[in-house]
Specification:
transmembrane, 0% strand, TIGR04086 family membrane protein, membrane, mainly alpha, DUF3792_TM, transmembrane helix
Length: 129
């Protein structure tokens, strides 16, 4: 059995953090654009739940893509860990800020975040030269 310092996990952590940075930057920009659409456009607030999942998916794909591209190998791992970290931060924010507990929606969000990040990571590894 490999020790923690001999495994690949410590070497992948900087890639996960850079993927998280990209994911949260994209999420912030997309949320800002959505707020502008609500303010200036005719979009109704009833469409927000669908828009929320689209924003999260785009952010996770981009964050996983960057994590996979920077890692150079095992993009599914770097992207998946980015998705899990993203999901943990979002869930922790919901718990601390809005008193939202764990339910099936948050479990499915975590599974979807891992899969979207892993897909982005696999794509990102393929673009590395």
């Amino acid at each position: 059995m490999k020790a923690w310092k001999d495994s690949e996990a410590p070497r992948k952590m900087p890639h996960v953090f850079s993927g998280l940075l990209y994911a949260f930057l994209i999420m912030g920009g997309a949320a800002f654009l959505l707020a502008l659409l609500l303010l200036l456009g005719g979009q109704k607030e009833e469409s927000l739940p669908a828009s929320r999942y689209v924003i999260h998916a785009m952010s996770l794909l981009a964050g996983g893509f960057m994590a996979g591209r920077k890692s150079g190998s095992r993009g599914w791992y770097a992207g998946g860990m980015t998705g899990l970290a993203y999901s943990a931060i979002i869930s922790l924010t919901g718990y601390l800020g809005f008193d939202k507990g764990v339910d099936w929606t948050s479990v499915w969000f975590t599974v979807g975040a891992f899969l979207a990040g892993a897909l982005g990571g696999m794509t990102g590894v393929q673009t590395k030269k």
